[in-house]
User: What shape does this take?
Amino acid sequence: MADLPALVRQIGGGRLVELRPTGFERIARGIVAAGPMLLGIGLLLGYLELKTGGSFGLFAAAALLCFLSISSAIIWPD
Assistant: This one.
């Protein structure tokens, strides 16, 4: 067969529906693809938060942002 619509017509199928990912699904795929990098950055920032004295939590907030972005992309991909 040359293409999918011709195959559907040949077997007497009904309507052919193409599904495309939404914008949020594309964003989630990008975050998941960058997941190992975000995880490494989050661990590094968590380490820096523990080793720097007198900081006001800037490294911890950034580490939390890295961890939450990857976990939300994995848990809620839709």
About this structure: The two ends are 33 Å apart (CA to CA). The chain has four helices and no strands. Helices lie at 4-10, 23-33, 35-51, 58-75. The chain has a mean pLDDT of 84.
